[in-house]
Amino acid sequence: MPIETEWAETLISLRLQVPESWWYGNDRDKLYSDTVSALEFLTSRQYVFQFELNTEYGAFYPIRYDAVFTFKDAE
Asked: Band of the pLDDT at 6, cuts 50, 70, 90?
């Protein structure tokens, strides 16, 4: 599903709480605080958000929009 670029860019700086179980091979529920840091354009109609752990600056992890919505920090 295409996402409007201008709107998607407004999600940069959104805070997330991603459980450790999100990473392959992990099954713990420990939450990691992170921030949506970038938007990568794979094609003109496909985007991947990049998030960065607050404790691991410079390491970016790709995440789809539905996961951004799922893990957004409610506070």
From this structure: confident
Residue 35 and residue 27: Cα distance in Å, rounded?
A: 22
What is the C-alpha to C-alpha distance for residues 13 and 37, in angstroms, rounded to an integer? 6
CA distances from 62 to 9, 12, 48, 75 (A): 15, 13, 6, 23
Instruction: Kindly report the pTM of this predicted structure.
Output: 0.77
Dump pLDDT digits (tens) for 9-42. Answer: 898 999 999 999 888 888 888 898 999 998 887 7
CA-CA-CA-CA torsion for 5, 10, 14, 19, nearest 10 degrees?
-20
Domains of the chain by residue range: 5-71
The strands making up 46-53's β-sheet, listed across from edge to edge, are: 15-19, 31-43, 46-53, 60-63
